[in-house]
């Protein structure tokens, strides 16, 4: 059974940093694009960042560009999201996602992703 498990969320003051991890199990995702999305209460799920299978290509939402960094360690079957200079508007549940097909480029559309984690809460206090 394929599982994506996010961790690293929590409460942080504005301006602080958090590092989210997404550990995959049940199959290897070393050849698959992965991404992060977030959903604030009462709002739709939005794209945050994506990375291709090799880690050589990344893409970010304008709202996080320059503050967040997505990376991956294929040996550990894990993708990360380093979040710096956090703002209250970054408060949301953060979800990790993976594409089933191998060697696709970065994917920014949620409907293209086949696997999703349960999410981890990030709360940024002002």
What does this structure look like?
- There is one protein chain.
- 0% of the residues lie in helices and 52% in strands.
- With 126 residues, the chain is mostly beta strands.
- It is globular.
- A hairpin with a 4-residue loop joins strand 7 and strand 8.
- The chain has strands spanning 3-7, 10-13, 18-25, 32-39, 45-51, 58-60, 68-73, 78-83, 92-102, 115-116, 120-125.
- The strands form two sheets. Strands 2, 4, 5, 6, 9, 10 and 11 form a seven-stranded mixed β-sheet that branches. It has a four-stranded antiparallel β-sheet with strand order 1-3-8-7, with no helix packed on it.
- It has no helices and eleven strands.
- The mean pLDDT is 96.
- The termini are far apart.
Regarding quaternary structure, how should these chains be classified?
A: single chain
Q: How helical, in percent, are the residues?
A: under 10%
> What's the number of extended β-strand segments?
11
User: What is the string of helix and strand elements?
Assistant: EEEEEEEEEEE
Largest sheet: 7 strands, mixed
Strand content: over 45%
* Total number of helices: 0
**How much is the radius of gyration in Å?**
13 Å
Q: How would you sum up the global shape?
A: globular
Span of the ends, CA to CA: 40 Å
Low-confidence stretches: none
Residue-averaged pLDDT, rounded?
Answer: 96
What is the SS-derived class? mainly beta
SSE arrangement:
Layout (H helix, E strand, L loop, with lengths): L2 E5 L2 E4 L4 E8 L6 E8 L5 E7 L6 E3 L7 E6 L4 E6 L8 E11 L12 E2 L3 E6 L1
Parallel strand pairs: 2-11
Antiparallel strand pairs: 1-3, 3-8, 4-5, 4-9, 5-6, 7-8, 9-10, 9-11
């Amino acid at each position: 059974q394929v599982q994506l498990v996010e961790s690293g969320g929590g409460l942080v003051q504005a301006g602080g940093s958090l590092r989210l991890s997404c550990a995959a199990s049940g199959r290897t995702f070393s050849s698959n694009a992965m991404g992060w999305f977030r959903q604030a209460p009462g709002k739709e799920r939005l794209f945050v960042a994506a990375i291709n299978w090799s880690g050589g290509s990344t893409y970010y939402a304008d709202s996080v560009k320059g503050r967040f960094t997505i990376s991956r360690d294929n040996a550990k079957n894990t993708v990360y999201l380093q979040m710096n200079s956090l703002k209250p508007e970054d408060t949301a549940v953060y979800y990790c996602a993976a594409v089933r097909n191998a060697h696709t480029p970065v994917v920014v559309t949620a409907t293209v992703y086949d696997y999703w984690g349960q999410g981890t809460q990030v709360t940024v206090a002002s």
